[in-house]
Amino acid sequence: MKQSLNRKFIIGLVIVIALSALTALLAANILYMLHSKPKMDQALVDTAETFVAGLEKADMTEAVLDEHLQLFTSLGYQGAIVKREDVEGKDSDVVDFDTAAVTLAGEPFDRTELSLANVRDVMDGGVYQGEAATLANWFMMGHFMNDVRNTVGVPLEVEGGQYALFIKQDSALMFSEFHIIGLVFFLTVFIVGLISIIIMSRRMATVLGRLSTAADEIRRENFDYAIEPENYAPDEIGQLAVSLDAMQGQLSENRYMRQKFISDVTHDLQSPLLNIQGYSKLMMDQDLPKGLRQPAEVVHQEARRLSALARQLTVLNRFDDQTYQVKHEEIRLDRQVQEVIRAFSWRLDQEEIDLSYTLDEVSVKSDPHLLYNVWDNLVSNAIKYSGPGDEIFIRLTDAGDRVKVIFSDTGVGIRKEDMDQLFERFYRVDQSRSTNGSGLGLAIVKETLDMLGGEVEIESEFGSGTTFTITLKK
């Protein structure tokens, strides 16, 4: 909508206006051809015949014929008189009124050629009413063309000589001041209407843009965004604003209830899980029969896994609540990463995985608890998707104003189709290993780095291992 709602509306409006204008022009031309033009031509023929009848009644002579024609055309007509003797014996099929011996009166014609057959037909007693088949005459503007073919012709006999009289209304007079005023009127209406609609469309696009922003904020779970439906007009858009505001309130309430539920459940789970871990560990330390030791180990491992899941849910719940205050403390990253590695040393030995590292001595100002969760999840993830004989390598590099931490493993790798969903909550790449993870670790990594202003990049080839590159500001 940003790019184009207003533009699309205006383009659509221009298209509609153009189509409407073409349709109106077509309808007007059909009306002109079927109704107006025959009536105007007939009225002009009647005028010409009346003029001829007056001349013949007054026993007009050739000597004064030109004067009467000039007098007649002074009333707003253009005229021409052609004598039979002047066009007989011509080789051409057309008569050029500009070069032939033709008497002209009134404004000169722009186009002066007329078919010789039409001229003879008039002299033989026929009536000429323009060339209806001419393309220009299918349009109204053809009526205003200063063309001798737009005239009407009637026969005239003076002193025994046969003539053809051609007349038409003066084109300049036909396009009168009234037509100019009408044209200005319609152009003004069109321009003012177009400008008004553009302004209205921009206002509508602005209002819809505000609602679009509100919808985006709700999608991001920013339920504190002020929609203010009272500032919208009481129309369909205003009703949409009211509905969005109500939806925002309901979603905010649902989020609060969800977060409270997760917080209560994870808190209540920790105590019994710790008890289960403690007693299962105690049982494992005793000299148990062979058949009981394995169940005790399973109970202990599952309790640890559930406890880790509860902790991760607590972390995500705090992120969702948006009340977590990020700390900015001086942290020696190399020492923190070494601490995480030591915490996993027993598991690395158990899984027969070799871990090596190269750590620059570098410090950053950040949240130590959040960063510890990042390294913890990345090491845990590398172990989970590696097997006996695989290797994990960690490199910490001081890059000036930034720090890069690289976690590489030679484990199973990740398929291309899984890459886009890798950081989604509860998404597990390898379902066969679903009992070993919750699908929350990498989601916590991504959301934590977003909070801290860091970045995470991933490169992987299925069957050859995975590399996570973490970039932090100092």
TrEMBL record:
Q: Record's Pfam families?
A: HAMP, HATPase_c, HisKA
EC number(s) given by UniProt: 2.7.13.3
Kindly state which keywords UniProt assigns to this record, in alphabetical order: ATP-binding, Cell membrane, Kinase, Membrane, Nucleotide-binding, Phosphoprotein, Transferase, Transmembrane, Transmembrane helix, Two-component regulatory system, Virulence
Keyword Transferase assigned to the entry: answer is yes
SUPFAM superfamilies membership: ATPase domain of HSP90 chaperone/DNA topoisomerase II/histidine kinase (SSF55874), HAMP domain-like (SSF158472), Homodimeric domain of signal transducing histidine kinase (SSF47384)
EC supergroup of this enzyme: transferase
Q: How does it sit in the membrane?
A: Multi-pass membrane protein
Molecular function as annotated in GO = kinase activity
Residue limits of the Histidine kinase domain? 264-474
What transmembrane ranges does the database entry give?
A: 9-34, 178-200
Q: Where is the HAMP domain?
A: 202-256
Q: Where in the cell is it found?
A: Cell membrane
Q: What is the catalytic activity of this protein?
A: ATP + protein L-histidine = ADP + protein N-phospho-L-histidine
According to its UniProt entry, the function of this protein is described as: Member of the two-component regulatory system HssS/HssR involved in intracellular heme homeostasis and tempering of staphylococcal virulence. HssS functions as a heme sensor histidine kinase which is autophosphorylated at a histidine residue and transfers its phosphate group to an aspartate residue of HssR. HssR/HssS activates the expression of hrtAB, an efflux pump, in response to extracellular heme, hemin, hemoglobin or blood.
Report the protein name in the record. Heme sensor protein HssS
Q: Which organism is it from?
A: Salinicoccus jeotgali
